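Researcher: I'd like a candidate sequence for this fold, 326 residues long. If you have to choose between options at a position, lean toward the conservative one.
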């Protein structure tokens, strides 16, 4: 017992001596004094705290600006007319302020986009996760991530000059501006987001779970849809919700390809106008400052903010609900 205590004491003494030696070497190499280190340790948390709180104050400032101007808008227009009206003509006489056409246009484009991007993005993620050799994966994934960085205005002209003519050859009589070509272009734009985030979620599934599925006789496809996808479901759902939020908030593609007609329609072959496209239209400078039409962009912006905020909360809830703990 005495020998054991002696050995433990000697071991602690050696560790302390080693720590002191390492600390002295670092101090001699960097040339910094203990006083300077104390000052850095004292000041750095405060600087980092200040940096982290800047984003909060910026967000609060944005919300305050939106809220203040939105209140001014609703001093002229009733909330009932804004939420239930089916005509949106604030720039023309007679002025009508029903946001449903803009809301329906945004939802229509987002639904078409996710219908295109969901299966393709998830399929690409499964391929990269389960089937692609390392060399192919290292080539394809960066290409997908580069596609996500293409300016959206390029997708807008791609929709106008390529997708729409192709659709017109299949559907004679289709107008130049329509929700379908805009939705397809937005879907192509968000494919990399779904594929990359879903593949990251699948790659996070522990390797022993995959090998366990193979050991039980599962094929790669069976392992993918019975084990990997359920295991990564929280990340996959989060990628889909983020992609939908991105589609609803997309601006340039819908401004170019969808037209500027706030139609209350479910027909994807007709021109529509989304909330973001309307904000761009009013922000061009032709609208008188502090007029009712001017304040509409804040009311529409507040609506867009609330929708994306609720979707982010919903995504966080889904992520926690379906998260698998390993």
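Model: Candidate sequence:
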């Amino acid at each position: 017992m005495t020998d054991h205590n002696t050995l433990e004491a000697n071991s602690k003494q050696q560790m302390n001596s080693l720590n002191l030696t390492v600390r002295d070497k670092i101090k001699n190499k960097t040339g910094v004094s203990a006083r300077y280190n104390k000052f850095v340790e004292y000041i750095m948390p405060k600087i980092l705290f200040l940096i982290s709180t800047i984003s909060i104050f910026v967000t609060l400032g944005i919300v305050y600006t939106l809220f203040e101007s939105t209140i001014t808008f609703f001093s002229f227009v009733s909330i009932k007319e804004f939420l239930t009206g089916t005509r949106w003509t604030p720039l023309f006489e007679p002025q009508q302020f029903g946001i449903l056409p803009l809301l329906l246009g945004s939802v229509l484009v987002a639904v078409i986009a996710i219908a295109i991007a969901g299966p393709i993005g998830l399929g690409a993620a499964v391929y990269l996760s389960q089937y692609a050799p390392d060399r192919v994966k290292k080539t394809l994934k960066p290409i997908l991530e580069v596609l996500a960085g293409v300016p959206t205005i390029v997708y807008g002209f791609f929709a106008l000059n390529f997708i729409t003519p192709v659709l017109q050859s299949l559907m004679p009589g289709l107008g130049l501006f329509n929700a379908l070509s805009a939705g397809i272009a937005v879907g192509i734009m968000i494919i990399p987001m779904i594929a990359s985030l879903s593949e990251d979620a699948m790659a996070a599934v522990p390797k022993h779970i995959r090998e366990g599925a193979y050991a039980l006789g599962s094929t790669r496809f069976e392992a993918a849809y019975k084990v990997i996808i359920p295991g990564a479901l929280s990340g996959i759902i989060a990628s889909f919700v983020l992609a939908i939020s991105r589609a609803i908030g997309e601006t340039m593609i819908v401004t170019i390809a969808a037209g500027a007609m706030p139609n209350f329609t479910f027909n994807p072959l007709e021109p529509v106008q989304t909330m973001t496209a309307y904000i761009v239209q009013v922000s061009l400078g032709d609208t008188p400052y502090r007029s009712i039409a001017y304040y509409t962009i804040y009311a529409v912006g507040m609506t867009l903010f609330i929708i994306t905020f609720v979707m982010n909360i919903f995504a966080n809830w889904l992520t926690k609900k379906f998260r698998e703990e390993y």
